[in-house]
User: Fold these one by one.
Assistant:
Number 1:
Amino acid sequence: MVVPFPPGGVADLTARPLAAALEPHLKQPVAVVNKPGAGGAVGMQFAAVSKPDGYTLLCALSSISVMPEVDSLFGRPQTYKTTDFAPIALLNADPTILVVRKEAPWNSVADLVADAKKRPNEIKYSSSGVYGTLHVAMAMFTHAAGIQMRHIPTAGGGPALTALLGGHVDAFAVGPSVVAAQLKAGTVKVLACWGAKRLASLPDIPTFIELGYPDVEFYIWAGLFAPKATPPEVVKILREATKKAANSAEFKKAMENLNTPVYYLDGPDFQKFWDKDANRLVKAIRAIGKVQ
């Protein structure tokens, strides 16, 4: 199971308990292999061109829809196409949250925006890479708010969190699972949520839509994919095994511990969800434009 990011991010935190839950149903070991680079494009390309025999899978995030559009934006050959993959199952889907360190001077989005307008490009935020999942969410916000913040890309959600906790950046957008421990410990604070409605686990945190940013909506989801040419009978086996794994008590407990409840959709329904989400992300990339 290829994870196109380093350990510690949403994809990795989802893949590892899923791999363990899959093993009894597939009756063989399921190894998780991290292949980070280029905002996830390296690992996704690797999976796209792998032998379509069911033995190489990809646990990817919503950024799988972003990279082909970015390639087109810059007029370069696409690293891969979304049509290179057969969706097996959606595993979880949470909106990102805007996180800052506990000691940060801002207690609301309004505070952050006002400060950013006074100090263009001085407030820094980390991400999982240029045009990666976490970068797109922040770019949507800064574009809508009319502010400029300095982007410090890293190789994934885990390193992006390390940059925040180490004081190298001031903020970042992240899936709740990645900062679950820090939220419990009170070492970070949350200013807003990118969802259409508030998170059940963070009922006091407003959405950007509530705060007057109607187009700032973004979800960080994790899904399982196989190369497109994988035979239908093999895809069927993988779908059935993944359904059992995703609904197992062990996997559900692992996700609950990360404040990320399971949101399972089987292949065909996942495809519909993916198409709708990809359309929203493509529009966002076109609005953001080229970022060097």
Note: The two ends are 31 Å apart (CA to CA).
Number 2:
Amino acid sequence: LQLGKLSGLDVLEEAKKTKPGLPVLIITGYGTVKSAVEAMRKGAYDYISKPVDHDELKILIARALELRRLAQDNQALRAGLREQFGFDRIVSRSPRMIEVKRLAADVAQTDTTVLITGESGTGKELLARAIHYASPRAARPLVAVNCAGIPESLLESELFGYEPGAFTDAKKSKQGRFQLAHHGTLFLDEIGELCPAAQAKLLRVLEDRTVEPLGGTRGVKVDIRVICATNQDLPHLIKQGRFREDLYYRLHVCPLQIPSLRERPEDIPALLEAFLGTLTRERGVHIRHVSPEALRLLTAHAWPGNVRELHNAVEWISLNCKEDTIRPDHLPPHLRAAAGSVPKERPSLLSLGLSVEEMEKAMLEEALHEAGGNVSEASRLLKVTRNTLRYRMEKYGLK
């Protein structure tokens, strides 16, 4: 502690600036409570007085190194979560979805409340996780609550916690999800299912960032970022009197609407490739190609269950297809039923061993050929917008 011109506390401060994760032990023959408190406040791992017991010192060093190892493991885990739930893992080629990801990446750097809307199965929770792990709060908890999955009688206690005696079985206090998400992010899925009482309390939390547990007399301050998601039409619920208008405008700060899969069919080949890649790594699936007929059936389907339904279809295909190329007879029954609309004399490109991207390019070339080079007609044949078709033509260098 007493080094001369510089004190041990000065060294401690500099060490924490240079190597924040480095544990520091302070040793002194002039120990006082004040100096010990000051050392710990500035980040010392421990504070010991002379004469030093070498066995005790070895134990302290071992504990300090173990603490550093755990911190490094935790840092690696957080980095893995960022990679696992990053925006790059949200597969998309459509301009609309790319724009949604761009806006989400921008808002991730703020504490703005986000409202994600879209049909069931479009990936709202995946987008919410990507926002959290790209934000400055990534090292803090992400607490997810499915508002539709908790009984109305328990929802308030789950969200806001309770104090002993708040109700019959409340023997001790319990923190709610808002308190568990302190310094982190709270993700409220299916926000449209909140009961009126919970809506009123949520509005209060959003206004002053204070949670009042059931049975409590004092509010608890929380530092949280709120992300909500719903597949319902909240303005319509407001007209029906089922959702508070003032809460809606509190949530509607940064709205992000995820388009349905039928609105972005150009994403289907990319999603298919990504899902097959995952199955290849995890299960050793050997599917490498998709026949033009199978790809046409997949892109023509309306996908009411969106990306989740496509993922389930790929799971079925991985069990049903024992070859390296997906054909119409490998598809789920409801997709195979549409196979009769595909001309049997249609030329096959299987002998070329095309990848999914090469197959997509071949489909674009064929559509343009059948349309005589007319982009509007080709986009109608492929059931995509003109802008989407032009985007894909530019990618593949087609004219």
Note: The chain has a mean pLDDT of 86.
